[in-house]
Amino acid sequence: MHRLHKTKSLLITLLALILFGSCQKDEILSDAGARPNFSEDTLLFDTVFVSIGSVTKNFRVYNPYDKTLKISSIRMAGGSTSLFRMNVNGLPGTSFSDIEIRGGDSIWVFVEVTVNPNNQLLPFVVQDSIVFETNGNKQDIDLVAWGQNAHFLVAKKQSANLPPYVVIDTNLNSSVTWDESLPYVIYGGYAVVDSSTTLTITEGTQIHFSNSAGLWVYKGGTLKVLGSKDKPVVFQGLRREPALQEEPGQWDRIWVNDGGINEMDYAIIKNGFIGLQTETLFAPALPVSLKLTNTQIRNMSGLGILARNFSIEGWNNVISNCGLYSAAFTMGGSYEFTHCTFANFWRYGQRSTPLMYLNNYTTDQNNQAIPVDMSKAEFKNCIIYGENDNELELDFKSGALNNHNFRNCVIKADNNTPTSDPLHFDVIYRNNDPDFKNTFDNNLKLDTLAFAREKGNPLYINPAAVPPMTIDLEGLTRPTGGTNPDLGAFERD
Q: Which residues of 50-67 are buried (b: 16+ CB within 10 A; e: fewer)?
C-alpha cells in the first residue's frame, strides 16, 4: 500500500512538471541587435510574359540564435498594389505580424509575380521588396522581374474529339505574317492555320507555347518559316528561366497536314513533346509537302519528327535528344535527307527505342497491317548515331514499296540491321563514332580529328538547291571537288 501511494505521488509530480513545462512559453529574444538571416538577398524572375504568372520562387528565413526570435512585421513594400504575391509558411497575404521562429529553426517564404501589360516592345523591369522588422531592425529582400509584352493567342474554341483551338486571324486575307517585334504566346491549346491560309514567320520571331499547346497547319493551309543563321525562328515552351530553357515536355507539337507547300528554314524547335508531326489526312501527299532546311529539333520528350504518309525533303538539319525516336517515318511516304545529323544521347531517363524508325504500313481497327508504299526513304551523307546498341529499325511488310537507301552514312546498328545489303546500303560506316564535340551539351559539331570528316560524297550535293546545300548549318562552305565533305549538318571549322 505504501509502495502504491509512492508510485501515485511520483506520477502526479511528473504530470505537474509536464503541465507546467507546457505552459511556459519559449523565451523571446529581445536584444536590439538580434535579427534573422536569409538564404537569398534578391529574387530575380527572368522574363515573365505579361498577364501570365511566373514560376514560384522561394527563400528561407533563419533564426541563428538559441532563443525564439519574433519578427514583428513581414510586409510587401508595395502593399496590395504590388505585382508580386507572397506566402509565408503556407499563408498568403501582403502583410504578417508577430511571426515567431524557434531557436535554430527557419520558415519559408514563397513569391510569384504577374506583370501588367503596357505598350513597350522591349522587355521592362518591375520591382518591389519584402520588408522585415525585428527588434527595431529593418531588412529587405529585393524582388526583380523582367516583363515582356506579347501577342497572345488563347485557345477557347471547343469541338468534339479535338483539343481546344483558336484560328489565326488573317483579317479576311489569305495570309498573315508574324515578325520579331513581339513574341507570340499560344496558350491553352492549338493555334490553327486554316485551309487556304498561309502563315509566314520571319527571322528572329519567338513563339512560346503553354502546356499542351501547339501549332496546327490544317489540310490546305501553308506554313513558311523564314529564319536566318543569325536570327532563327524559335519554337519553345513558355518559361524563360535559364534552368528551363532546354527542359523537355513543356508544350505539345507543331502539326502539319497535307495540301500546302510548307517550308521551314533556320528554325529551332525545342523542349516540347513532338517537334514536327507531318501527316496526310485524307489523300496522298503532294510531291514536296515540307522542305526542311537548316533546322534544329532537340530535347523533345517524345519524338523529333513523326511523319505519317507524308513527303519531306531536307538538308542541314540536326534532330537530336528525344525520349522516344529522333525521327519516325511511318505509314509510307517519300523522304529525302542530305547532310543531316540524327543523334540521340537522351539524359532524362532510359530510352528503349532506336533513334530512327521506318515502316510501310498502317493498321486497321483489328490491328491488322495495311501496306502503304514507302516510295522513297533516302539518306545521303548523314549521321545516324546515339548511345543505344541499335539506332535504326526497319519494319517493312510485303505488299507495298519499301524503297529505302542509305548512302555514305555513319550508322549505329546491331546485327539485325542489314547494313551490308548492297541494294539499300552503300558506303556505310557501321558503328564508327563520328566524334561529336560534346554530346552532353548537345554540341554535335565534329571534333578536330573526327572520324566523320571527309567521309561524304560531293555528288550528293545539289549546287542548285535553295537554300544552298553547299553551305553547312553554320555557314561554312562544303567542298564539292577534290576534298570530300564531312558527314552530317556541320563541316568541321
A: bbbebeebebebbbebeb
Q: Is residue 488 part of a domain?
A: no
Q: What's the pLDDT band for 123 if we cut at 50, 70, 90?
A: confident
Do 158 and 288 lie in one domain? The reply is: yes
Q: How many CA atoms lie within 13 A of 54 on its CB side?
A: 29
Question: Could you please report the per-residue DSSP string of 216-227?
Answer: EE-TT-EEEEE-
E strand or H helix that includes residue 254: strand 253-257
Residues 6+ apart with CB under 8 A from 225: 201, 233, 263, 264, 265, 266, 267
Rg (CA), the chain: 30
Reported residue count of the chain is 493
Q: What is the CATH number of the domain that holds 102?
A: 2.60.40.10
Confidence of residue 10 (pLDDT cuts 50, 70, 90): low
Distance CA 390, CA 344 (A): 11
> Element (H or E) spanning 406, and its range?
strand 402-411
Q: Which pairing describes strands 296-300 and 274-279: parallel, antiparallel, or unpaired?
A: unpaired
Number of domains in the chain: 2
Q: State yes or no: pLDDT of 92 exceeds 80.
A: yes
Same domain, 123 and 161: no
Domain region containing 234 = 149-460
Q: Which burial class, exposed, middle or buried, applies to 361 when counting CB atoms under 10 A from its CB (0-12, 13-18, 19+)?
A: buried
Chain segment 310-325, per-residue pLDDT in tens: 999 999 999 999 999 9
Q: Which residues touch 63 (CB under 8 Å, ≥6 apart)?
A: 36, 69, 101, 102, 103, 104, 105, 106
If asked whether residues 135 and 164 sit together in one domain, one would say: no
The pTM of the full predicted model, rounded to 2 decimals, is: 0.84
Strands 253-257 and 214-217: parallel
Pairing state of beta strands 296-300 and 267-270? parallel
The per-residue b/e assignment along 167-182, b for 16 or more CB within 10 angstroms, e otherwise, is bbebeeeeeeebebeb
Q: What is the mean pLDDT of the chain?
A: 92
143 and 211 fall within a common domain? no
**Residue 274 pairs with which residues in a beta bridge?**
253, 303
C-alpha cell at 441: 551539351
Give DSSP secondary structure letters for 6-54. HHHHHHHHHHHHHHHHHHSPPPBP--TT---EES-SEEEEEEEETTS--
Asked if residue 4 belongs to a domain, the reply is no
Does the residue 422 lie in any domain?
Answer: yes
Could you give the 3-state DSSP secondary structure of residue 327? strand
